[in-house]
Amino acid sequence: MKNKAFNSFKKRYFYIVFLVVLLLGAFLRFYHFSDWLHFELDQSRDAKVIDLAIKEGPGALPLLGPKAAGSFLRLGPVFYYFKYLSSLVFGNTPSGIATIIMIFGILAIPAFYILVRRYFNKWTSIGLLLLFSTSLFLVMYSRFSWNPNPLPLFTILAIYSLLRAVDREEKNKGKWLLAAAFFISVATQLHFLAYVSFPVITAAFLIIKRPKIKWAYWTGAIGIILLMNFPVILNEIKTGGDNFKEFKEVVSGKTEGKSEKSLLAKIVKNYSENSVGHFLILSSQNSELPRVLRNPNLNILCDQGCKKELPYGIVAAILFSSGLLLMLKNLVFEKDLRKKDFIVLISLWFIAVFGLFTPLAFDISPRFWLLVSALPFIFLGFTLDFIGKIFPQRIAVAVALIVILGFSASSLYRTYLRFTELKNAPYKTVKVSADRILKERQRVTMEQQYMITNYIESFYQKNKYPVYLNSSSFYRRSLLFDLSQRDIPESDFRDAVNGHTVYRNGNYFLVYPTDSNLEGHLEDYSISYDYVNKKQFGTLMVIQLAPKPEAINAEEEIFEDSGGSKSAAGVPKRYTWQEIFDSTGSEDEEEE
Predict the structure, then answer these.
(1) Tens digits of per-residue pLDDT, 94-107?
(2) Quick one: how far is CA 515 from the chain centroid?
(3) Residues 542-546: contacts with CB within 8 Å, 24+ apart?
(4) Nearest of 84, 97, 77, 93 to residue 57 by alpha carbon
(5) How many angstroms separate the Cα of 175 from the Cα of each of 110, 221, 251?
(6) Contact criterion met (CB below 8 Å) for 172 and 470
(7) What is the DSSP string of 296-341?
(8) pTM above 0.90, yes or no
(9) How many CB atoms are located within 10 Å of the residue 504 CB?
(10) Average pLDDT value for residue range 162-173
(11) Phi, psi of 543 (to 5 degrees)
(12) Three-class SS of residue 534?
C-alpha cells in the first residue's frame, strides 16, 4: 500500500511540476504582450499586407511571402496566412496580428518535451523543458511578429514527426510522414535557411532509414508539399519563374562568399558563434570568445569587452564542445534503435545547419538560431546524461540541479531586467547594454507608440490637416501605420530639401530616439521649417515643426486611397489571389 501511494504521489508530483513549468513559460510569453509588443520596420510592412486583406477580403492576400536573404527572393506565403487568421480572430491590430506567434511560442514548450522524451528520461526532460520555457531568447522571439519566429515550433514538430515515421514499432508511420510533410512545408516558408536545410536533412534521414511505408502515404506527402507550395508555383507560372531566378542569384552569392576570409577562419568563427549562441539560449547570459579578424590570416584578438565576458565564453565553449563530442560518441555506440534514430536525426540537423552557417560565419544574425533552437538544450542533455552514467546518482542529480536551476535563474533574472526596461521605455530614457537577442539600440513598445500616436492625433483633431512624419527607419513605417489605422491622412516626411512641396495646411512631426542627435535632425529641416516644440515619451522624442511662410508653395495635399501596393521597378511581381482570379475570369470571357 505504501509503495502504491508513494508511486501515485511521484506520478502526481511530476504532472504538477510539468504544469508549473508549462504555465511559467506561457506566462513569460503573454505577460503584457500587447503593451510591450515589438512593432518596427518588418512588422509594420507585414501588417500593411494583412490590413489590406482584412479590408478587401482574402483575395488581397499575396501568393508569395516576405523577402528573404536581403534580396528580392520571397518565401512562401504561409506566414501571412497565419497572421490573417490571427487578425480575424484576435482583431486587426498589431497585437491581434501577432497573437498567433505568441500561441506558437507557447505550443513549442510541450512540443519540445515530447521530442526530448524520445531520448532522455522524464526528469532530465523536465529539467531541459524548464530551461526551454524560461530562455529569454525564446521568450522574446515569441512576443512579436516576424516570419522566422515560429521556427522553434515547426522545426521541433518536423523532427518529431520524422522520428515517428521511421519508428519500427509505430503503427501509424504513414500518418506521421504526412504530418512531417506538412510541418516541413511550413518551416521552409518561414526562413531562407530553413528552406535550404530542411529538405536536405529530411532526404538524408529517409534515405538512411528507408522506412517501410505504403506508397499511398508517400504520394500523399508529396501532394501536401505541392499543395502547401501551390501559391508559389502559381506565382512562378504567372511570372515566368522570376522568384526562382532570384533564388539562384541568392544561392550563388551565398556560395561564393567573400574571398578575403579563409575557410579555416570561417570554421573557427562558426564554432565560436555556435558556442556563445548556444550559451545565450541556455542561460540568457552574454559570453565572448577571442575573435578571428576578418582577413586572410587566422589572427586572434580579445579586447577589453571580450576579456570581461571571456569566463562565460570558456564555459560556453566547454558546454558546446562536450555536447557535440557526446553526440558523436552516442552516434557510434548507441544500441537502442529509437535513441539511435534520435541521434542520427539530431546529428543531421546539426551538421546541415553548421555547414550552412560556415560561409555566413562572420554575418550570423541572432534570428538564425531559431532554426536550431532545440539543439542547445539537447546538447546539454547529452552532457547531463553522461554525468549521470559516470558519477554516483546523488552527485549526478546535484550537478544537474545546479546547472538547470542556475541557468533558469539566470534567464528569469535577465527576463526581469528586460521587462523592467520595457515597462519604463514610455516614461524614462532607458539605457540598453549589448543586446545579443534582438540587436535593439533602444527599447520601444507598442504602448509607447500609441501614446505618440494619441499625441499627434490631438493636433489632427483640431485642424484636420494631414500628418507628415519622419523618424528613424525602425519606427517611421510603424508610426505611419498606426496613424493610417485611425484614418488619419499621413505621409512620409523624409524629403525635406531639394525643392520638395511644402504645404501650408499640414501637421509636421519628427520622432527620434531621445538620446540621438536631435540638433542634427532639426538642422536637416531648418531650411523650410521652424521648430515649434518637443515632447518626450521616454526613449523617443516627438518634435513639432511648422513650415516657414517663405517656403510654402502649396496649400494642402489631397490624399487618395491607392487600394494596395504596387511592385517597384525591377522588383519581381508578387500576385494576389484576386489578381489570379481576375485574370482567369478575363481569359474565360475572351474565350467565350
Answers:
(1) 999 999 999 999 99
(2) 27
(3) 542/452, 542/455, 542/456, 542/509, 542/510, 542/511, 543/509, 543/510, 543/511, 543/512, 543/518, 544/459, 544/507, 544/508, 544/509, 545/508, 545/509, 545/510, 546/508
(4) 84
(5) 20, 9, 33
(6) no
(7) SS--EE--HHHHHHHHHHHHHHHHHHHHHHHHHHHHHH---HHHHH
(8) yes
(9) 13
(10) 95
(11) -115, 125
(12) strand
- Look-up of cell digits 510569453: 29
Number of H helices, E strands in the chain: 21, 7
DSSP 505-532: S-EEEEEEETTS-HHHHHHHHTTTEEEE
Q: Could you report the per-residue pLDDT of 465-512, keeping only the tens digit for each?
A: 999 999 988 899 999 999 999 999 999 887 665 568 899 999 999 999
Q: Quick one: pLDDT band at residue 2, thresholds 50, 70, 90? A: low
Among 8-17, 248-257, 436-445, name the most confident range.
436-445
Contact 568, 586 (CB under 8 A): no
Q: Cell 484576386 sits at which residue?
A: 578
Query: Looking at residue 435, what is its pLDDT?
Result: 86
Cβ neighbourhood burial of 490 (10 Å; 0-12, 13-18, 19+): buried
Question: Buried (b) or exposed (e) across 360-373, using 16+ Cβ within 10 A?
Answer: bbbeeebbbbbbbb
265 band by pLDDT with thresholds 50, 70 and 90? confident
The answer on pLDDT for 3 being more than 70 is no
Q: How many residues does the chain have?
A: 592
Q: How far is CA 68 from CA 72, 237, 329, in A?
A: 7, 20, 36
How many other C-beta atoms are found inside a 10 Å radius of the C-beta of residue 567?
A: 11
Sheet holding 490-492, edge to edge: 490-492, 467-471, 507-513, 540-547, 529-537
**pLDDT value of position 569:** 53
Distance of CA 134 to the CA centre of its chain: 17
